[in-house]
């Protein structure tokens, strides 16, 4: 079985707490909003965002990749 590539759908800045979600129709990250349309954590406009990329997200499922 070939591995299936997964992509992240949400990310949070480790510095300011900004939460973004992937918007498939636009093909870009957007600020997350709740059910009423209110933005969740906006974060700092001066932040150089540091997204959680420490390796906990596993992009492949369904088997190990062969080298």
Task: Please render the helix and strand layout as text.
Blueprint: E1 4-5, E2 10-12, E3 19-23, E4 28-31, E5 60-61
Antiparallel strand pairs: 1-5, 2-3, 3-4
Word description of this protein:
- The chain is an all-beta fold and 67 residues long.
- The protein has a domain at 10-45.
- Helix content is 0%, strand content 24%.
- The chain is built from no helices and five strands.
- The protein has strands at 4-5, 10-12, 19-23, 28-31, 60-61.
- Strand 2 (10-12) and strand 3 (19-23) form a beta hairpin.
- Residues 1-61 form the HEWD domain.
- InterPro entries: HEWD.
- It comes from Halobellus litoreus.
- This is HEWD family protein.
The residue-averaged pLDDT reads 81
What order do the SSEs take from the amino end to the carboxyl end, as H and E? EEEEE
> Which radius of gyration do the C-alpha atoms yield?
15 Å
Q: What does the main sheet amount to? A: 3 strands, antiparallel
Strand content: 15-25%
Label the overall shape. globular
| Extended strand count | 5
| Structural class by secondary-structure content | mainly beta
- Low-confidence runs of at least 5 consecutive residues: none
Question: Level of helix content?
Answer: under 10%
Strand order of the largest sheet: 2-3-4
Number of helices: 0
Query: What distance lies between the first and last C-alpha atoms, to the nearest angstrom?
Result: 15 Å
Domain HEWD: 1-61
InterPro entries: HEWD (IPR046782)
Protein name: HEWD family protein
